[in-house]
Design the sequence.
């Protein structure tokens, strides 16, 4: 069976680094940190008081009216905001695809935790009769897809993928396969997450997963550095428009890159800790290269999962070395989480955008705060400053609790 | 503030509609375009604001601002 080629034709991004694709990318290649003390909530008594918080966000009322903005949790709003940007970027609405041939699959790790917490408080304090009728619609993980479909009239596939911090990377792979198989002509994909609350932070902090560098937020996310002490919560979204390559070309769309391979695997090891040698990560990187039919020597850049946890950074590094052999010292690896924090279920969406921009511009975003490199992490991580390097293939890695792994391979446009 | 004005103010804030466009005759469904979930939320706000309990079968009869004002008046005697 001949598979269709899959083109990337548009992108939209929001995170602690900025509220548009251009802002996010220009701050990323400038090596800026989007991590600050948290400003939206009173953080008194929280074990961690900083994160990669989105700033000055106000959703365009044309995308969601003001009364609904009070009702719908942040991850819904980030998805609409970024979908709007990606649709404009791709000019998809000028294409004449049938509505049922345009689908939506996002990844979301947790869903509407802020509203879940708020309604639980109301339930305890005021009773069942005061729980909002919008509580359930606001928090279910697939509502961003529903809202996008309603707003723009897309009538194709519509569901969410939940695989913790690998969610949006898996979403991209499944969305791409919908186009490869010819079931859809265009897909809106990527991921969205907005769960920076005291309760969520407390949960991750109890797992000892978070950095506690409260006095130096901008230096807290430091993958591969000897002084790393855990990941930093981020939030936001990364939305990508994918199209059937030939159809996109026929309509005169600008093709930014292609998705040519993806893989998905399990560690079968532990609920939250990575496999010590990165075995699951190794399987899915290999699968990805095999599907793409690309030799490992051709891959020039990896946007790593690299969360800045003591175990995870080492395990992923070992997996990369096993997959790429000698070439692992020639390719460039970076963790943009050093600047954005960890967007959890949205990480793969945003970081795939970084891969695509790297292919498009020939600029590799850096790993910042890499002052004292851990000898167990001995690859080239584009330390502290972005680098000009022409790359033809870029790989994104995303891994999640539950021992789930995903990789995606992007090819520079011809 | 008159009861009527209080109800209009509450509906205006809940629906983000200009209070100047809301009167006793304003219908929740036809004029304000509220669906069943909107109505549940609005009735919760009424209950909080006016300290009454509006039974579910009663809310079906409250189709306009005027209906609500009349209902609330009947409860206050």
Sequence:
């Amino acid at each position: 069976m001949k598979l269709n080629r899959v083109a990337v034709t548009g992108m939209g991004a929001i995170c602690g680094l900025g509220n548009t694709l251009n802002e996010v990318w220009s701050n990323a290649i400038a090596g800026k940190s989007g991590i600050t003390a948290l400003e939206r909530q009173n953080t008194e008594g929280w074990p961690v008081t900083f994160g990669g918080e989105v700033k000055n966000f106000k959703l365009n009322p044309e995308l969601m009216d003001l009364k609904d903005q009070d009702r719908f949790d942040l991850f819904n709003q980030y998805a609409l905001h970024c979908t709007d940007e990606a649709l404009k970027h791709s000019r998809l609405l000028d294409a004449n695809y049938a509505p049922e041939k345009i689908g939506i699959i996002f990844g979301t790790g947790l869903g509407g935790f802020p509203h879940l917490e708020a309604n639980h408080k109301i339930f305890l304090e005021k009773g069942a009769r005061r729980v909002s009728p919008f509580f359930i619609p606001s928090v279910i993980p697939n509502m961003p897809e529903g809202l996008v479909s309603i707003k723009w009239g897309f009538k194709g596939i519509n569901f969410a993928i939940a695989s913790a911090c690998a969610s949006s990377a898996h979403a991209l792979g499944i969305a791409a396969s919908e186009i490869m198989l010819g079931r859809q002509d265009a897909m809106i994909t990527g991921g969205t997450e907005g769960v920076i609350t005291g309760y969520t932070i407390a949960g991750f902090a109890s797992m000892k997963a978070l950095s506690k560098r409260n006095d130096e937020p901008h230096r807290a996310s430091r993958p591969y550095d000897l002084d790393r002490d855990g990941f930093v919560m981020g939030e936001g979204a990364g939305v990508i428009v994918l199209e059937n390559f030939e159809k996109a070309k026929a309509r005169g769309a600008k093709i930014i890159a292609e998705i040519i391979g993806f893989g998905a695997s399990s560690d079968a090891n532990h609920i939250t800790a990575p496999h010590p040698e990165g075995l699951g990560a190794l399987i899915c990187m290999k699968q990805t290269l095999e599907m793409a039919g690309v030799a490992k020597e051709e891959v020039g850049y990896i946007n790593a999962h690299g969360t800045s946890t003591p175990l995870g950074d080492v395990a992923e590094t070992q997996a990369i070395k096993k997959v790429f052999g000698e070439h692992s010292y020639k390719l460039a690896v970076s963790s943009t989480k050093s600047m954005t924090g960890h967007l959890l279920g949205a990480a793969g969406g945003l970081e795939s955008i970084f891969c695509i921009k790297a292919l498009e511009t020939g600029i590799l975003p850096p790993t910042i705060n890499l002052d004292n490199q851990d000898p167990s992490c001995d690859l080239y991580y584009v330390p502290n400053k972005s680098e000009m390097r022409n790359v033809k293939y870029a790989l994104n890695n995303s891994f999640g609790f539950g021992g789930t792994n995903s990789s995606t391979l992007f090819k520079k446009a011809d | 503030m008159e009861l009527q004005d209080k109800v209009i103010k509450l509906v205006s804030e809940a629906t983000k509609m200009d209070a100047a466009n809301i009167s006793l005759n304003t219908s929740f469904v036809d004029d304000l375009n509220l669906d069943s979930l909107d109505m549940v939320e609005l009735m919760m706000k009424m209950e909080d604001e006016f300290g009454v309990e509006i039974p579910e079968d009663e809310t079906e009869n409250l189709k306009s601002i005027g209906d609500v004002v009349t209902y609330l008046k009947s409860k206050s005697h």
Q: What stands out?
A: DSSP finds 13 helices and 14 strands in chain A. Chain A has a mean pLDDT of 97. The CA atoms of residues 300 and 391 of chain A lie 5 Å apart.
